[in-house]
């Protein structure tokens, strides 16, 4: 699936990020092409979420540069909202808005942020709900859904903004195996349509199956990156080996 | 009687009174009570002491309308001695001591130049008063006045100055007294309206039902006050113009 | 009505229990009017407090620091001093100085009646409390929810308006309900500046008849009744705003 | 005192007010004493009532809830009046008359509503501890009392602190109602000043002084409560 | 490891349990021998947790009978605390007491419930902490530990009561793969010592490796139970097949 010679759409150059004394990212460089699917794996606390949060400017970086589809993210005059229209993000903890129904959750941002036409948005939202196989839940509140269902709504909500890049942060970590399956299927569908995807996951098999490139992070650095086959079958770095060894 | 025995036991007489009622009773900044009624209380203390054969101390218990009957009934004080107007309804609840010791009617104070000829002229108009004054309800009910009642005299006075009401109502003799003693000219722009007093209510000392001895002793004391002119003298001392009631009583008991 | 009046008059003559408000038409009218005034004070005070509280809550989020300090000073001052003393300050301080409640030459009604002063006093005092409650509510909205809004491209104020405030308001409802009950009880301070609400009238009546115990019982029932009404209203609002999965 | 007075114009309002300050401070001391004592009593009684409210046994829980509701919703004035009405003023022991000081009655009176409010705060606090903690305690064979005191209440403490401090501030300010039982607290003293002194213009400085007194006393308490809330907030993370 | 002909230590007979209208357990029967290790697997909401909660009387049953080491659990006069001294339970969400240190968490119940001697308990607690490899954390508060560390403390806490039966409810569901490994190792150690264990898990490989018997639940019923080899290699029921198929 890898599109060789394609234009890079997300470029990180030597990105550093500290929380107070703690240096969390110690020089991260990566480059993701249009329509590429990239997985980031690594132990807990190694900075995976922080990378994603830096990319859509939820967390400011201390040094280095990030460029997303031509937008310089660490430009002081950055229009954050313009950036976030192009970069969708789905969180581990779903973060649906509990006071709105499923359909409203999906339609809110396109209507209120992009000021799009209600009829269009509604049509698109319904189509997305169908895609995540939740059409019959459109009037339910998030509190009435199971975890996997909520996660799928969160994905649909992000997609309804028509982003160019989608980021998924451990979206299956708190789910049971069956539901994990449902969510992964949804992500696979999204990826199959040619959207650029960056995903942080603990599901090694899934990462292997879906990615064009796998990055392994440890203690704020990218230790190794490779195509999935070589990465899993023939890891180079000792830390990667130790990690893959522990993961059942 | 029980209460008199208690007074004797403790060598102390406790009196419920409104301590915020100048110049009848008021506290100075050291907390000492002063005023016309305080003078009368002192005299009463001496006379009661003779009755029980002991030197008595006097203790003032500050009261509010909400608690004075309770305090009397439950023995927190031996009597109520304040500007308590005698009404038939109240007579059912407490024992007033006869003869009543004083009387007052309502007086109106306004800015100079306000012409009020009869009580009908104030119908529907706002009049400032003290909360707990016995004039409030009759004025409202019988004369259609809008009473605007505050907790302290300063507030009542301030409200009249601010024009929140066209007049203030209070005991007529109190109003006279304060104009007579107004050395600083605080009230130079104000005057007392000359209206017929629609009622002059007698003030009574009140005790609990059932102690005839105490009642008798107090009755003797008030009788003596009228006969000797003690009430009239004390009132004059505090700047009051004694009411007609006092002179009537003096005549009545002098003859006996 | 007639029968009730007769019964209580009879009761008085037989037993000495003097519920004069229940048979004396003039007093009954005044007392009912007193209850009406108390309710009206509570309603207006509540409205004022909510408006001031919400306004302060917003002003505190503004980035201009002196404005924030000013609002904080207001809140701290009004939360930490007796409401009665505040009322005196408004009424005899500002009111006297600016001649706000003076009758005109020809008896024109004053600019602000004592009633309006109480409404202003209640609003200012409880507005400070509402501001605090709402702030706590906003802080209780999970950070992840706020981030989700940001990631969807919501600006600061849009996120506040569409997502944070609706949630904060629901979270704050129980505390706001308590506050409301407190306002109902505080209407009694109106008696200090001669607004003839229920307690003021009761006071007048027991001064006249010496029936303090009876009137205290009447006052107790009156307030329990009013609180009950307001509790019902809060319940209704809670039910109306209820969202499945939030709270019980 | 006379030296201070002499700083002011003899005719100024402060020259009139300052001689009253000792009496006002004495009154304010009563406000503080009454509020602190009634708070102390109310906290103990309220903790018990609050725990009873949580009882699964209907015959205990329902009356406790009703009592809490009643105590919270009754006007303080009425409660104070009832305490005055129901408590004797004095008792005869042998040939001696022992009288209860008025402030004792005020303390009893204020501890009642405080009990109601604390009861509700305790209930809210205990409910704020996640069910899983109750279950964990049950699974470790803790009994109800141990569960409450070793596991739940220490965790609920942080939740309960701010409303308790707020309540204390309200109580301190409501103690002015103590004049019903005959306590000459600071607002009563202020009113005495305002009836005794005839010079106009005393209202604002007099009430202003009480306002400042309360603020100086209550504000540090509310600051302290914020500080404690932050400190404990760090200890327990959820 | 299976001890044939051993005495059953936990016996459930046709246990039924409803929450309101919803029947959650529709007749569950199982029997666990002393020192046996049993795994329960099944889709989310199928009643796995409920079975465990019924066994230690956290949830009362509606019908059927449960007998644990001779104690009738649905006896109305059941001494719950006696039961819970014999049955330990570790929860998915750890549920450590956040206001106590690690060592205090472990020692609290033996001291306060069993009234054991402090020195003995302390010695035992230290030994257990060593066993879960957390000796150096004894004075840390739960908030200072990672999820996996907390979970191991929770296991030690339960073990310190010297229960006869240990139940583990999805103790690894919220952990990252590395930490999962740590916790599973600890459980394996416990089981190796011959304690009766009932565990609910989503880790199929682990269930297969450690259990004597595997139960599969679906919609409140036990659909299938077997020894692990046959269960995973040769599932009989269609629902089991479908489930095992979906699990990655
Ligand atoms: N807001 C914050 N303040 C301080 N430290 C933080 C903050 N957010 C994250 N960290 C720290 O930064 C480091 C990296 O965190 P990050 O969330 O990126 O890790 P991760 O790789 O996503 O881990 P996980 O797999 O557990 O989600 C961790 O040590 C974490 O404690
Ligand atoms: N307290 C409760 N009140 C009402 N319904 C409940 C309650 N607890 C559980 N349920 C319901 O009972 C059913 C079984 O729940 P249970 O927790 O036993 O499932 P589970 O198999 O453990 O699922 P999971 O793998 O998600 O933990 C679910 O449908 C759940 O919604
Ligand atoms: Mg992360
Ligand atoms: Mg479960």
TrEMBL record, chains A, E:
Residues 111-138 form a coiled coil. GO terms for molecular function: ABC-type amino acid transporter activity; ATP binding; ATP hydrolysis activity. InterPro entries: AAA+_ATPase, ABC_ATPase_HisP-typ, ABC_transporter-like_ATP-bd, ABC_transporter-like_CS, MetN_ABC_transporter-like, P-loop_NTPase. The keyword Disulfide bond does not apply. Pfam families: ABC_tran. Residues 10-244 form the ABC transporter domain. Keywords: ATP-binding, Coiled coil, Nucleotide-binding, Transport. It comes from the Bacteria. Signal peptide: none annotated. The keyword Cell division does not apply. Belongs to the ABC transporter superfamily. PANTHER family: AMINO ACID IMPORT ATP-BINDING PROTEIN, PHOSPHONATES IMPORT ATP-BINDING PROTEIN PHNC. This is Amino acid ABC transporter ATP-binding protein. The lineage of its organism: Bacteria, Pseudomonadati, Pseudomonadota, Alphaproteobacteria, Hyphomicrobiales.
From TrEMBL, chain C:
The keyword Transmembrane helix applies. Pfam families: BPD_transp_1. Its main location: membrane. It comes from the Bacteria. InterPro entries: AA_ABC_transptr_permease_3TM, ArtM/GltK/GlnP/TcyL/YhdX-like, MetI-like, MetI-like_sf. Keywords: Amino-acid transport, Cell membrane, Membrane, Transmembrane, Transmembrane helix, Transport. PROSITE patterns: ABC_TM1 (PS50928). It is found in: Cell inner membrane; Cell membrane. GO terms for biological process: amino acid transport. It is a multi-pass membrane protein. The keyword Lyase does not apply. This is Amino acid ABC transporter permease. Residues 35-231 form the ABC transmembrane type-1 domain. GO terms for molecular function: transmembrane transporter activity. One of its GO terms (cellular component) is ATP-binding cassette (ABC) transporter complex. Belongs to the binding-protein-dependent transport system permease family. HisMQ subfamily. NCBIfam families: HEQRo_perm_3TM. PANTHER family: L-CYSTINE TRANSPORT SYSTEM PERMEASE PROTEIN TCYL, MEMBRANE COMPONENT OF AMINO ACID ABC TRANSPORTER.
TrEMBL record, chain D:
One of its GO terms (cellular component) is ATP-binding cassette (ABC) transporter complex. It holds the Pfam family BPD_transp_1. Keywords: Cell membrane, Membrane, Transmembrane, Transmembrane helix, Transport. It is a multi-pass membrane protein. The keyword Membrane applies. Coiled coil: none annotated. The keyword Mitochondrion does not apply. InterPro entries: AA_ABC_transptr_permease_3TM (IPR010065), ArtM/GltK/GlnP/TcyL/YhdX-like (IPR043429), MetI-like (IPR000515), MetI-like_sf (IPR035906). The chain crosses the membrane at residues 28-52, 64-87, 165-182, 202-224. Gene3D superfamilies: MetI-like. GO terms for molecular function: transmembrane transporter activity. Residues 28-225 form the ABC transmembrane type-1 domain. It comes from the Bacteria. GO terms for biological process: amino acid transport. It is found in: Cell inner membrane; Cell membrane. Belongs to the binding-protein-dependent transport system permease family. HisMQ subfamily. This is Amino acid ABC transporter permease. It comes from Mesorhizobium zhangyense.
């Amino acid at each position: 699936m890898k599109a060789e010679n394609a234009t890079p759409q997300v470029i990180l150059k030597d990105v550093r990020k500290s929380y107070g004394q703690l240096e969390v990212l110690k020089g991260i460089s990566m480059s993701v092409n249009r329509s590429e699917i990239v997985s980031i794996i690594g132990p807990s606390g190694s900075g995976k979420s922080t990378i994603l949060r830096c990319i859509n400017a939820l967390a400011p970086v201390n040094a280095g540069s990030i460029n997303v589809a031509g937008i310089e993210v660490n430009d002081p005059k950055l229009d954050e909202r313009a950036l976030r229209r192009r970069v969708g993000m789905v969180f581990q903890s779903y973060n649906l808005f509990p006071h709105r129904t499923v359909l409203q959750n999906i339609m809110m941002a396109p209507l209120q942020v992009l000021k799009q036409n209600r009829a269009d948005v509604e049509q698109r939202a319904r189509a997305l709900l169908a895609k995540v196989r939740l059409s019959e839940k459109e009037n339910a509140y998030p509190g009435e859904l199971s975890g996997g269902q909520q996660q799928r709504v969160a994905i649909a909500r992000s997609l309804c903004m028509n982003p160019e890049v989608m980021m998924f942060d451990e979206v299956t970590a708190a789910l049971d195996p069956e539901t994990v399956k449902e969510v992964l299927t949804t992500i696979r569908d999204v990826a199959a349509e040619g959207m650029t995807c960056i995903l942080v996951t603990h599901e090694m098999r899934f990462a292997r199956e879906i990615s064009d490139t796998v990055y392994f992070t440890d203690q704020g650095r990218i230790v190794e990156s490779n195509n999935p086959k070589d990465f899993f079958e023939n890891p180079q770095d000792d830390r990667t080996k130790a990690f893959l060894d522990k993961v059942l | 009687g029980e209460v008199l025995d208690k007074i004797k036991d403790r060598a102390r007489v406790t009196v419920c009174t409104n301590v915020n009622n100048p110049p009848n009773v008021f506290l100075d900044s050291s907390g000492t009570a002063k005023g016309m009624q305080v003078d009368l209380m002192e005299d009463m203390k001496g006379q009661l002491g003779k009755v029980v054969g002991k030197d008595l101390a006097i203790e003032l218990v500050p009261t509010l309308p909400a608690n004075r009957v309770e305090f009397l009934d439950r023995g927190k004080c031996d009597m109520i001695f304040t500007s308590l107007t005698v009404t038939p309804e109240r007579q059912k609840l407490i024992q007033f001591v006869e003869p009543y010791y004083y009387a007052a009617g309502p007086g109106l104070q306004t800015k100079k130049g306000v012409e009020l000829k009869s009580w009908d002229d104030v119908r529907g108009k706002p009049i400032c008063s003290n909360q707990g004054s016995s004039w409030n309800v009759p004025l409202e009910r019988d004369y259609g006045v809008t009473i605007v009642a505050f907790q302290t005299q300063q507030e009542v006075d301030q409200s009249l100055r601010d024009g929140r009401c066209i007049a203030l109502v209070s005991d007529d003799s109190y109003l006279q007294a304060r104009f007579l003693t107004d050395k600083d000219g605080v009230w130079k722009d104000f005057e007392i309206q000359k209206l017929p007093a629609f009622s002059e209510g007698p003030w009574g000392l009140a005790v609990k039902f059932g102690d005839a001895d105490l009642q008798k002793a107090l009755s003797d004391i008030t009788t003596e006050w009228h006969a000797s002119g003690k009430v009239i003298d004390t009132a004059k001392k505090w700047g009051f113009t004694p009411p007609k009631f006092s002179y009537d009583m003096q005549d009545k008991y002098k003859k006996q | 009505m007639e029968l009730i009046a007769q019964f209580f008059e009879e009761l008085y003559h037989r037993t000495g229990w003097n519920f004069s408000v229940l048979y004396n038409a003039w007093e009954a009218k005044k007392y009912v009017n007193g209850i009406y005034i108390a309710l009206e004070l509570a309603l207006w005070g509540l409205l004022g407090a909510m408006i001031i509280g919400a306004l302060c809550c917003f002003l505190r989020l503004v980035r201009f620091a002196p404005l924030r300090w000013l609002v904080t000073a207001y809140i701290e001052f009004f939360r930490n001093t007796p409401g009665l003393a505040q009322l005196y300050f408004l009424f005899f301080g500002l009111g006297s100085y600016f001649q706000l409640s003076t009758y005109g030459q020809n008896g024109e009604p004053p600019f602000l009646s004592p009633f309006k002063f109480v409404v202003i006093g209640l609003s200012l005092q409880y507005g400070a409390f509402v501001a605090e409650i709402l702030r706590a509510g906003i802080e209780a909205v999970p950070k992840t929810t706020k981030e989700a809004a940001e990631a969807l491209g919501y600006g600061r104020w849009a996120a506040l308006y569409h997502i944070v405030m609706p949630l904060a308001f629901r979270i704050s409802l129980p505390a706001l309900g308590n506050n409301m009950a407190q306002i109902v009880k505080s209407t009694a301070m109106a008696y200090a500046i001669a607004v003839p609400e229920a307690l003021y009238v009761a006071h007048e009546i027991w001064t006249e008849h010496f029936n303090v115990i009876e009137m205290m019982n009447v006052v107790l029932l009156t307030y329990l009744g009013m609180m009950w009404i307001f509790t019902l209203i809060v319940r209704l609002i809670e039910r109306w705003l209820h969202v499945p999965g939030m709270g019980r | 005192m006379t030296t201070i007075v002499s700083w002011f114009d003899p005719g100024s309002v402060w020259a009139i007010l300052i001689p009253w300050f000792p009496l006002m401070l004495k009154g304010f001391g009563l406000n503080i004493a009454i509020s602190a004592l009634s708070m102390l009593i109310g906290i103990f009684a309220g903790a018990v009532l609050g725990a009873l409210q949580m009882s699964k046994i209907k015959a205990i829980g329902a009356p406790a809830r009703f009592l809490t509701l009643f105590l919270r919703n009754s006007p303080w004035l009425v409660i104070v009046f009832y305490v005055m009405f129901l408590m004797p003023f004095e008792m005869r022991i042998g040939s001696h008359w022992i009288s209860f000081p008025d402030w004792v009655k005020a303390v009893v009176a204020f501890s009642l509503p405080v009990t109601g409010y604390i009861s509700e705060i305790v209930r809210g606090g205990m409910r704020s501890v996640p069910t899983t903690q109750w279950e964990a305690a049950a699974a470790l064979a803790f009994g109800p009392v141990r569960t409450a005191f070793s596991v739940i209440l220490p965790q609920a403490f942080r939740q309960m602190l701010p409303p308790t401090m707020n309540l204390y501030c309200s109580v301190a300010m409501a103690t002015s109602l103590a004049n019903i039982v005959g306590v000459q607290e600071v607002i009563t003293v202020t009113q005495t000043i305002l009836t005794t002194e005839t010079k106009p213009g005393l209202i604002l400085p007099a009430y202003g002084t009480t306002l400042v007194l309360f603020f100086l006393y209550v504000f540090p308490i509310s600051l302290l409560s914020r500080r404690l809330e932050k400190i404990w907030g760090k200890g327990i993370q959820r």
